[in-house]
Design brief:
The structure holds two protein chains of two kinds. By secondary structure, chain A is α/β, with parallel strands linked by helices. Helix content of chain A is 27%, strand content 23%. In chain A, β6, α7 and β7 form a beta-alpha-beta unit. The radius of gyration of chain A is 23 Å and the shape is globular. Classes of the chains: A alpha/beta, B alpha+beta.
């Protein structure tokens, strides 16, 4: 049996003397600080400019260093939507709220066979910022997204995928957290909730008054956000092409419909 | 080999040659001379593949390797120009420009001798019967390799080709068979016999060929070799005493070669656009892979990262004895990155374009170059022509170009079908806006319709046939409608003409 000497608990003598801090230690501290900065950068949020939604989201906006899912919801009648243009429009709106830089758009022809049309996206962001990568297989798509998240100078990464399995979702979340770049998954069809995204939105086209983009947006998962009084907060949003402004149409809550209501809040 | 309707000999081994047979002899004649002659059908295609593979293997000695063009001519079915000795099969030839390559095997003369010995020894290890000769000119080396008798003659001294080939038979001059036969009939058996002959009568009698060939062999006129692959301006090589095979070793060697090459780049102020790594395996085969970058690059870690994706595809086989890294495409470039000292960690510029281009390179390597694009606006009214996918190396659209373009047009869909899909329409009256359309067997009842927006065809553009449309024909027009169905889905439909019986198409989806 060895006896613990009383000196063992004494503070190391070297600390008392205010000797010069080794350069390696300085470097280490600097690196830790940088990591901390990055983490805080990861926790910043991009406000949507809609107080009704922003107050529910963590830090008053869409968290940037995180994974978000946007899925096309069924039409109000309950039918499968014919296309995902509403979800795409909402995604484009979110991209427009993020900072400057390249937008990496990863698509899979097998999932989304109809290509983007840049003149229709100008309302939300400059399509010149888009870098479009076409992947044949799903693992290539997720690989490309991860590469994008790790690259400096990228403002956001969007992937059009059928579903993200938990592993891929986890990897994307981690990469997004590390770099502070948001990853958005755009799905043309609702899928069973699997991944560990920070927010999940379901967007469906809503009848408009004069063919303006109008969407029924449900926030189905809000991981770090404020609790809502409603089980599934939902808004009717309208985009005004003249003023380039998205606004909440007030009667949304009264006329809330949709089959999604019957499902439990996931996550 | 078949020629003039009867089987002929394409290639011979030394025994057959000693027995008096010659290439292009009729098989029946050959059988008469040697009744126990063993023949195989010649396979020019397989021979060509073999000689190409050998030429690739010879890249280890010099980047400047050419397949003997006379041999290549022989392999073509309808080639009339053939040579008495030359061709695939028994007499295939490779021409290597080894200028300045001998120093790897020793200094000066000994180096070239060493290179030749190494070449012959390695080839015989793979069971090739081969002869090699080095001379100042391709013609002289060609003649020596085929007809040189003494081993000492095979390495011709600089400027010594005149004496070296004088005693060789005229077959060594690479002449057409008819000329050769006439020479033999005239008693001109040795190349040296031609030296004292007056040139003008010779040219008159036989045409230019004998003189050209003679001058080429003697070095009086140039004979450019056409290399099989364009020799790269920059390359580094590393050979191993023991073959290597582990992926980590190959990666380590690649990174060493890359470091050396990047230094060369820096001295020459260029950046690589394309890099190629070649593994020379012990069994004589060569495996290559290449990476491309969208702008000149000599950043060692970045290039290594690109290679890391590709090295996995390389198959070291039974082991690799030599690796060569070359840069087939370089561009002059004075980069900014070499001014940064290596000790300072390069902080990523969050707004920098650099990251994007490197990302595009990495993506293009795995997904294919055509699969990583950006969208550029095009000055056109036709919706499907308004955007074009350009490779990342193309300059980006200037900021605001898209906004200007879009401001001139009406509301546009966010997704556009590459090919408009026909739909069935129900309208109250033929000219009325539609009430309902059926797309992919789903009926959409329309509650809101906006339109038409007429987009006329661009008559100034040439038709697919190449003709500009005559002015008398009314160009096809499209009447576009933005519609919304009772579910809130918004679509972009068009009618391909104002007339009755015009068809309707779905072209896009609006947000």
């Amino acid at each position: 049996m060895s006896v613990i000497s009383p000196q063992a608990f004494a503070p190391p003598a070297a600390n008392d003397r205010g000797g010069p801090v080794p350069a390696t230690l300085r470097e280490q501290v600097r690196r830790l600080e940088r990591a901390n900065n990055a983490q805080r950068a990861g926790r910043t949020a991009a406000p949507l400019g809609l107080p009704e939604i922003d107050r529910l989201l963590p830090d008053g906006g869409l968290p940037t260093g995180a994974l978000h899912e946007i899925e096309a919801g069924p039409a109000p009648s309950g039918r499968v939507a014919a296309h995902d243009a509403a979800a795409l429009g909402f995604t484009a709106f979110l991209l427009g709220r993020l900072g400057p830089g390249t937008l990496l758009w990863c698509r899979q022809p097998a999932v989304a066979d109809v290509p983007l049309h840049a003149p229709g996206l100008v309302a939300w962001f400059d399509p010149g910022r888009l870098l479009i990568a076409t992947a044949r297989r799903e693992d290539d798509l997720f690989w490309a997204m991860e590469e994008g998240l790790r690259t400096p100078g990228i403002a956001a990464v969007v992937g059009e995928a059928r579903s993200a399995d938990p592993t891929a979702g986890r990897r994307l979340s981690l990469a997004a957290e590390k770099s502070g770049v948001p990853a958005l998954l755009l799905r043309a069809q609702p899928a069973p909730p699997q991944s560990v995204c920070a927010t999940r939105w379901r967007v469906a086209s809503a009848p408009s008054t004069d063919l303006e983009p109008r969407w029924q947006v449900e926030l189905r998962r809000n991981r770090f956000g404020a609790p809502s009084s409603e089980e599934m907060p939902s808004w009717l949003l309208e985009w005004n092409d003249e003023t380039h402004h998205l606004s909440v149409v007030p009667q949304a809550r009264a006329g809330s419909t949709g089959t999604g209501r019957r499902e439990r809040l996931a996550g | 080999m078949w020629r003039d309707g009867c089987p002929r000999l394409a290639a011979l081994n030394p025994h057959a040659r000693a027995g008096g047979l010659r290439v292009h002899m009729r098989l029946a004649d050959a059988r008469a001379l040697l009744p126990d002659l063993v023949t195989r059908e010649c396979e020019p295609e397989a021979d060509r593949r073999l000689i190409e593979a050998l030429a690739g293997w010879c890249d280890r000695y010099t980047p400047w390797v050419a397949v003997d063009p006379l041999g290549a001519a022989l392999a073509e079915e309808d080639a009339m120009q053939v040579c008495s000795a030359g061709g695939f099969g028994g007499d295939a030839g490779l021409l290597l420009d080894v200028t300045g390559c001998g120093h790897l095997y020793g200094s000066g003369d000994a180096g070239e001798r060493g290179l030749m010995a190494d070449l012959v020894q390695r080839l015989s290890r793979h069971d090739f019967t081969c002869r090699a000769a080095i001379a100042d000119t391709a013609g002289a080396a060609w003649a020596l390799a085929r007809y040189g008798e003494k081993q000492a003659d095979l390495l011709c001294q600089p400027n010594g080709q005149r004496d070296a080939i004088a005693a060789l038979p005229v077959d060594g001059l690479r002449l057409d068979p008819p000329i050769l036969e006439t020479f033999l009939k005239l008693g001109l058996r040795r190349i040296g016999d031609l030296y004292p002959l007056p040139r003008a009568p010779l040219a008159r009698r036989f045409g230019d060929q004998p003189l050209t060939r003679l001058d080429q062999a003697l070095g009086k006129i140039d004979e450019p070799l056409e290399p099989r692959r364009r020799p790269p301006a920059f390359r580094t090589r590393l050979s191993f005493a023991e073959p290597i095979g582990r992926p980590e070793d190959i990666a380590a060697v690649t990174s060493r070669l890359l470091a050396a090459l990047c230094q060369q780049f820096e001295q020459a102020s260029v950046g690589a656009r394309k890099l190629e790594i070649a593994l020379y395996r012990v069994d004589g085969s060569v495996d290559r892979t290449a990476i491309g970058t969208s702008r000149p690059n000599r950043d060692n870690p970045k290039l290594m990262k690109l290679f890391a994706e590709k090295l996995g595809e390389l198959d070291p086989g039974f082991g690799v004895e030599l690796m060569i890294l070359s840069a087939p495409e370089v561009e002059s470039w004075t980069g900014a990155q070499d001014t940064l000292p290596e000790t300072v960690p390069i902080m990523a510029n969050p707004l920098g374009e650099d990251g994007t281009i490197d990302l595009a390179d990495r993506l293009a390597l795995r997904l294919g170059a055509g699969n990583v694009v950006r969208l550029l606006p095009r000055d056109s009214h036709i919706p499907e022509r308004m955007q074009t996918a350009a490779p990342i190396s193309a300059s980006a659209a200037p900021a605001g170009a898209w906004a200007r373009l879009a401001a001139m047009k009406g509301a546009r869909p966010t997704r556009l079908l590459q090919r408009p899909e026909p739909v069935e329409i129900i309208a109250a009256l033929p000219d009325d806006p539609p009430r309902q359309f059926v797309w992919r067997r789903h009926a959409h009842r329309l509650v809101r319709v906006e339109g038409p927006e007429r987009i006329a065809d661009e008559w100034w553009r040439p038709r697919p046939g190449g003709k500009v449309m005559p002015a008398t024909i009314v160009p096809p027009v499209r009447d576009y409608y933005r519609v919304e169905d009772d579910d809130g889905g918004r679509f972009w439909l068009f009618r391909d003409g104002p007339l009755n019986g015009a068809r309707w198409y779905l072209h896009g989806f609006c947000a």
